[in-house]
Amino acid sequence: MANILIVEDDKAQRENLKTMIQEMGQALCVLEAQNAHEAFEISTANRIDLFYLDVHLPDVSGLELARKIREVPYYNFTWIIFITSHIKYMLEAFKEIHCYDYILKPIEKDAMQNITMKLLTNNKPDIEEKTERKHIFIEISGVMVKIFADEIVFVEVYRKTCVLHTIKGKYEVKNLSLKKILSTTPKGSLVQSHKSYAINIGLIQEINKKLSCWEIIFKNYEEKALIGDKYKDNVMNICKQYIIRR
């Protein structure tokens, strides 16, 4: 049985997250704490497999609690997921604390359950696995934001503004060209489909022919991207290769 510790001072949100986890129907023991002091006591008395930490706690911040947890040898590489309303804190979390990911409030049940399942099927990470997940850093309003390449749905550029559509939301960056973003992202993670678009092949649901272009519909994402005639053959060939590999 896996032990999950939720550290959240808001009782309603704590109960909501607990319910989401229990609905997964797995052999999971969900423990709760409303502050950092309680959380550390629980993590000392029990072997925790996955931490969900709210960034804002009443006694000390979730970041400080995570640092203290990391000082315990058993928890050097245990999964930590931060719960936050602001992505600006997450660069520090990734660089210093080596958290795996973060979830933005309000919490989406599907996203939370998917990541819980994914992490608990790989119960104890090792250093190599944690360094293999490809990512980029984007500066937004003076804050460096870490974005995982496999979470980018597509990129759209218009009027000198680059919009990164990700499974967690949209990020707008001024004066960033499509050529620059393609050179910045890990090789193969994005494919240019149009003079203004680059797409994640792995997240495509279907491709439809319209009057003047081809339209891409993605899995679990409402907005659509386009394929221009110049790029159509290359995109179609890569899609076929992707299907064969799968």
UniProtKB/TrEMBL annotation:
Q: Where is the signal peptide?
A: none
Question: Do you know which Gene3D superfamilies this protein is assigned to?
Answer: 3.40.50.2300, LytTr DNA-binding domain (2.40.50.1020)
Q: Which SMART domains match?
A: LytTR, REC
Q: Which residues form a coiled coil?
A: none
**Where does the Response regulatory domain lie?**
3-120
The GO terms this record gives for MF are: DNA binding; phosphorelay response regulator activity
Q: Which Pfam families match?
A: LytTR, Response_reg
What name appears for this protein in its UniProt entry?
A: Transcriptional regulatory protein BtsR
